[in-house]
Amino acid sequence: MDEQLQEDWLERRLREEMPYIDDAGFTARVVQKLPAARPRHSYRAVILIGITLLASVIAYLISDGGRFLIVEAYRLATLPVFFVGLLAICGSLALTAIAASAAWNNVREQR
Amino acid sequence: MPLNDADLVARVLVDDDHHAFAELVRNHQSAVRGLLRQLTRTDLALADDLAQETFLRAYKNIRSFRGEAKFSTWLYRIAYNCFREEARKRKELVGIDESRLEAEHDPQTVDPALKHDLMHALQLLPLPERSAILLCCQNGLSHDEAARVLEIPLGTVKTNVLRGREKLKKTLAAWSTA
Question: Residue B178 pLDDT > 70, yes or no?
C-alpha cells in the first residue's frame, strides 16, 4: 500500500514539476525557418474545363450540329400552358430544395 | 473554436498552411522543449536547437504522419531521434559518466540547495531509465507508446520505468536522511 502511495506521489510530483515553458518567440523562429510554401499548381480547373469542352464538341457532332436543341425548344414552346406552368413550379421547387440543403450544410459546418 | 491537432495537420497537408503549423508548434513546444531539456540535462541552448530541428523535421515529413498515434507521440519520437543523433555526433555514450553518477549519488556531495529536487534526481538516472520515466511518468504516455517513441521492446520500457522509479525513490530517501 505504502509502495503504491509512494509511486503515486512520485508520478504526481513529476507531473507537477514539469514547468510550462513560455514560447518566448520559439514558434516565430521555427516558422521563419520553414521552407517557403509550395506554389499551388492546381490542374483541376484546367482538366475540368478541358473535359467539358471536349464533351460539348463530341455532343455537338453526334447530335447533328445540335439540331435536337432546336427541336426540343420548339416542343417546349408549343406545350400547353398547363404543362409549362407545371414545369416552372417543379423547377423552382427543385432549386429551392437545393439552396435549402446547401444553407443547412453551411450552418452545420459553422457550428 | 480552436482546431484540434488532426484538423491542423490536415490544413498543413492540403494547403501547406504555415499558420496551422505555427499553431501546432505553439501547442506542443513546451512539452517537446521540456522533454529535450531533461534529456540533455538542462542544456537549454542545445535543447532548444534540437526542439527547432524536431519541428522542422515534423513539417518536412508531415505526410508520413498517418494519425495512427497521437501527434504528440509522433513529435516525441522525432525529438528523441534528434537527441540520439546529436548524442552520437558528440560521441556521448548512451548513459551517463558512472563516476559522476556515483559522486552525485552520494548525499554528502550534492549541493544542499538541490536536495529534494526531483528534477535534479531525475538527471542522475542513466539515459534509458530517464527517458522511460520522462515519457511514461511525466508526459503521460502509455508503456506501449513509449516503446514506439524509444524504439525498444515493451518489456524493456517497463523494466526501465521500474528501475528508474526505484532509483529515484532511493536518491530522494538518501537526501532526506542526510
Answer: no
Mutate to test the interface with A, among B12, B15, B16, B17 (most CBs of A within 10 A): B16
Contact B52 A23 (CB under 8 A): no
Q: Is residue A102 part of a domain?
A: yes
B130-154: average pLDDT: 92
A 10 A CB-CB count for A53 gives 10
> Concatenated DSSP letters for B53-94?
HHHHHHHHTGGG--SSS-HHHHHHHHHHHHHHHHHHHTT--S
**Is A46 inside a domain boundary?**
no
Distance CA B123, CA B117 (A): 10
**Contact yes or no for B22 and A20 at CB 8 A:** no
Query: What is this structure's pTM?
Result: 0.66
Name residue B129's amino acid: E
Domain that holds residue A88: 79-111
Contact A38 B16 (CB under 8 A): yes
- Residue B166 to residue B80: CA distance in whole angstroms: 24
Judgement on whether residues B139 and B177 belong to the same structural domain of the protein:
yes
Q: Give me the residue from B22, B51, B118 closest to A14, CB to CB.
A: B118
Nearest CA in chain A to B16: A37
Q: What is the pLDDT of residues B109-141, one digit of tens each?
A: 555 555 457 778 888 888 899 999 999 988 889
Last residue of a domain, one of B92, B111, B127: B92
- Average pLDDT for B67-83: 92
Q: Which of A17, A18, A26 sits opposite B48 (nearest CB)?
A: A26
* Model confidence band, residue B101 (pLDDT cutoffs 50, 70, 90): very low
pLDDT of residue B69: 87
Interchain proximity B29–A11, CB inside 8 Å:
no
| Overall average pLDDT of the B91-106 stretch | 49
ipTM of the complex: 0.78
